[in-house]
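ARCHIVE CARD
CATEGORY: sequence design from structure
SOURCE FIELD: tokenized fold
FIELD CONTENT:
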């Protein structure tokens, strides 16, 4: 009898240890910043719909919305914009002018290198031909 009690206790302890270690996987992933791809896609989709609706409510064209929020999926941004457009037309709502400038895109490691390369190219072009730089500045 003591032998069966010890073996059942050992099996129970192993099962509890296994369950605790498996349940800790989510906590470890959260601590490390690892996110499930399906959850990331769902969040980006919801963000795109919200941003698209906000762009329409503020009177921004969908193309401007795509350009400002380029890191969000275009399909969900358009869906949010279209839904808000229908809602505003049905309820005869006017646009609300934005009070703040648009947010900057999130910085990715590759974006910093591209921005540095673009700045270096612009600086090199300005050093070679200052008149062309002045004309380009006048255009903008």
């Amino acid at each position: 009898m003591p032998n069966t009690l010890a073996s059942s206790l050992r099996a129970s302890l192993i099962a509890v240890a296994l369950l605790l270690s498996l349940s800790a996987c989510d906590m470890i992933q959260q601590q490390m910043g690892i996110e499930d791809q399906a959850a990331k896609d769902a969040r980006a989709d919801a963000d795109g719909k919200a941003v698209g609706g906000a762009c329409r409510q503020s009177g921004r064209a969908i193309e401007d919305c795509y350009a400002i929020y380029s890191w969000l999926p275009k399909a969900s941004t358009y869906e949010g914009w279209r839904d808000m457009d229908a809602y505003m037309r049905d309820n005869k709502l006017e646009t609300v002018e934005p009070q703040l400038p648009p947010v900057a895109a999130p910085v990715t490691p590759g974006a910093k290198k591209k921005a540095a390369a673009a700045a270096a190219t612009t600086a090199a072009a300005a050093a070679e031909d200052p008149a062309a730089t002045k004309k380009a500045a006048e255009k903008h």
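CARD ANNOTATION: The two ends are 89 Å apart (CA to CA). The CA atoms of residues 69 and 105 lie 7 Å apart.
SHELF: design records, drawer C
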